[in-house]
Amino acid sequence: MTQAPRKSPPRVTLEDVARRAQTSTITVSRALRRPGMVSEKLRERIAKAVTELGYVPDPAASALASRRSNVIGVLIPSVTNSVFAEVLSGLYDTIAGKPFNAQLGNTRYAPETEDELIRVFLSQRPAGLVVTGIDQSPVSRALLAAADCPVVQIMELGETPTDMMVGFSHRDAARTATDHLIERGYKFPAFIGARMDPRSERRLQGFRDAIAAADIAEGDRVVTTPTPSSVTLGETLLAELLAQAPETDAILCNNDDLALGVQFAAHRRGIAIGPELGLCGFNDIEVMEAAHPSITSVRTFRREMGRLAIDMLMARIEGKDVDENVRDLGYALMPRDSTMRE
Amino acid sequence: MTQAPRKSPPRVTLEDVARRAQTSTITVSRALRRPGMVSEKLRERIAKAVTELGYVPDPAASALASRRSNVIGVLIPSVTNSVFAEVLSGLYDTIAGKPFNAQLGNTRYAPETEDELIRVFLSQRPAGLVVTGIDQSPVSRALLAAADCPVVQIMELGETPTDMMVGFSHRDAARTATDHLIERGYKFPAFIGARMDPRSERRLQGFRDAIAAADIAEGDRVVTTPTPSSVTLGETLLAELLAQAPETDAILCNNDDLALGVQFAAHRRGIAIGPELGLCGFNDIEVMEAAHPSITSVRTFRREMGRLAIDMLMARIEGKDVDENVRDLGYALMPRDSTMRE
DNA sequence: CCGCCGAATGACAGCGCTATCATTAGTTGA
DNA sequence: TCAACTAATGATAGCGCTGTCATTCGGCGG
Questions:
Q1: A125 reaches B (C-beta below 8 A)
Q2: Does the pLDDT at position B5 exceed 70?
Q3: What is the pLDDT of residues B209-226, one digit of tens each?
């Protein structure tokens, strides 16, 4: 199979438009970017020429001349994790139609990769940056602090925002979930967690806050692993947990995948989820409600987080003073069958 | 809260590097892009200067001068759909470390959005383009045909590739799955489908191929909806199906989410998945194997698809002649408990 | 020992836009 | 009526690279 050489279609430039509209390139440029600065008559003539010629601006030239690209860099630790996928979805929905382009960077939970990606993004003079979490490496932190664009940290909250933040307290959320288990009468709550990233660690912390406050001993009821989370892993971790702490009568899972896996495994073992074993997930993905029995979880507002991150960036790009630069989205406990004792 | 004005850090340019390495900018540029053209001594001096100064090339300037950006445009219909998320994951993993940037476009299943996004991408003079499916609008088709960059269509196969293709036959895959149901002894197989996009339609076609070949009447056993797929929707569609076709004894679901929903709903109704109701999903996401009972599905190679799409683009960008410009990744039936009659 | 050749290096223009300043036209108040 | 403004438009000079030539240099055959 021969590859047909592809010929570049002739590019329509600002100059072409200017010629057709009988004006200068700079005026066309202005008409496109700040229409208010150009008289209506001229603006219309230009609009007509743009349509007729099918002019589309060259972002590279624009970026070079203005020292500012239309790229919004987005750094997330995982593309496949549905939690981040939903943040992305909100983010892409919000950016759609705006003259900006989200560019995704996948850090794969590796700080060095994150450092590198931030450097790459910054080399593009981005319009804004979205980074996940608050535990950037010192290198990343320095790069972000020196960046001459707005930056939003998402997913978590912290005392020292680089610039802006939108998220919620994982610790408080896990604490609330654990309190719920205790209130429901479970005596020996356990915690299982996969992929113990900083957010997971904070959830574990919240779990510990709750049992300490209730004067419950932790025993051997915390099982964690750095392995990436999966449904199957829920089964494995349950086995491990029950082997080392048979007294366990309720489990807070680090995330919903694990919870689902625990539920399937419990079915297999003939353990009744709810009456015999309380079960609570984290994030409240759609399947939690649909499952049978339905599974209690802590709802987090992931799409909203993506949406707000872009809104905050836009506000700053447009020069508005953002009054709140840290937004707490909170969370919501969704009690369901899996934490009903009868 | 006042926004501290952020000062732009001084940019390190090729010229700075050239000065330090005591050579010219063009030589530095060459040393970076085609090291073979520069003598080793000079190359080392340049490498040293680059490191010491922390030089990072400006992609906008490079794109402008070379009329070719390092952007690889990727168009998918949904960010949240885990199937596409996995394709993306393979794609990002493969592109990582290469001097290219994937830029994602979310068409949301709307052809007009797709047209627009292709236009936007082309305005960046991309290094390559990845588009989902083979049912582009005439406008998109024309744009892609005239594009002066390699293009890969993913997810499906078709007779008339725009340029390159990597995918599998949804029709054959669904046919195989339905044959499996029939072989297992189910007499009244049904099909339920959500979000009936072109790929779903082809799966339905494959289902019909199989029952026609087995001389089974379709009856009222096909229920579809344009609504986006979800686990909950599986429950709804099952109810609808059983209401209009109570004889149903097996179901091929358009995708795994629906299958999971059907399974939960069956539990709720006291229907035994497997013996009473055969169930088969599509794609084989991780939870299928972990579910209890485990759910039969057709495995598709999504990460691989992303990987190959990039590999094919890279080969073409590097000027290699791609011998196969259409790659069939096939599929694999994964028989499990949900299609065991006893 | 000279001219020729390929490999290595360099000079220069320009990619398509926008920041900046200059200019012109139109307005206003004393 | 005219200086002093504001609004609208334009001329110019790059932004930081790379394509395209031109130049340099050492090696080598005749």
A1: yes
A2: no
A3: 999 999 999 999 999 999
Average pLDDT, chain A: 93
Domain map (residue ranges) of chain B: 14-57, 69-168+302-329, 170-300+333-339
The answer, for B159 touching chain A at a CB cutoff of 8 Å, is: no
Cβ(A165)–Cβ(A144) under 8 Å? no
Q: How many of the other CB atoms lie within 10 Å of CB of B254?
A: 31
**What mean pLDDT comes out for the span A76-101?**
91
Tokens of A272: 């009744």
- A78 to chain B: which residues are within 8 Å by CB? 89
**Residue among B56, B96, B119 minimizing CB distance to A123:** B56
The class level of CATH for A170-300+333-339 reads alpha beta
Give the model's pLDDT for residue A10: 75
The full DSSP string for B63-110 is HHHHT--SEEEEEES-SSSHHHHHHHHHHHHHHTTSS-EEEEEE-TT-
- Which residue type does A88 have? L
Q: Contact, B133 vs B145, CB < 8 A?
A: no
Write the residue in A102, A119, A325 that is nearest to B56 by C-beta.
A119
Q: Looking at beta carbons, which residues of chain A come within 8 Å of B113?
A: 96
Determine whether the interchain pair A64/B69 forms a contact, defined as Cβ–Cβ distance below 8 Å. no
pLDDT at A8 over 60: no
End-to-end CA distance of chain A: 68
Does residue B95 have a pLDDT over 80? yes
Q: Which nucleotide is nearest to B67 (CA to C1')?
A: C15
CATH 1.10.357 fits B14-57, yes or no: no
Q: What is the pLDDT of residues A277-300, one digit of tens each?
A: 999 999 999 999 999 999 999 999
pLDDT of residue B230: 96
As a whole number of angstroms, the distance between CA A120 and CA A78 comes to 18
CA neighbours within 13 Å on the CB side: how many for A190? 28
Please answer yes or no on whether A264 and B290 come within 8 Å at the CB atom: yes
pLDDT of the residue at B4: 34
Give A149-195 pLDDT, tens digit per residue: 999 999 999 999 999 999 999 999 999 999 999 999 999 999 999 99
Q: In this structure, how many other beta carbons lie within 10 angstroms of the beta carbon of residue A159?
A: 6
By C-alpha distance, the chain A residue nearest B120 is A56
Selecting from B88, B123, B235 the residue whose C-beta is nearest the C-beta of A56 gives: B123
Average pLDDT over residues B123-139: 96
Closest residue in chain B to residue A164, using alpha carbons only: B3
Q: Which residues of B touch A149 (CB under 8 A)?
A: 6
Q: Which CATH superfamily is domain B69-168+302-329 in?
A: Response regulator (3.40.50.2300)
CATH 3.40.50.2300 fits A69-168+302-330, yes or no: yes
Closest residue in chain B to residue A324, using alpha carbons only: B1
Distance A37 CA to D4 C1' (A): 22
Comparing alpha-carbon positions, the chain A residue that sits nearest to B114 is: A96
Q: What is the pLDDT of residues A15-48, one digit of tens each?
A: 999 999 999 999 999 999 999 889 999 999 999 9
Position with higher pLDDT, B42 vs A168:
A168
Distance CA A274, CA B285 (A): 27
Residue B229 CA, nucleotide C20 C1', distance (Å): 54
pLDDT-based confidence at residue A6 (cuts at 50, 70, 90): very low
Is A17 an interface residue toward B (CB < 8 Å)? no
Task: Answer whether the bond into residue B138 is a cis peptide, omega within 30°.
Answer: no
- Interchain CB distance below 8 Å, A82 and B80: yes
Same fold, B14-57 and B69-168+302-329: no
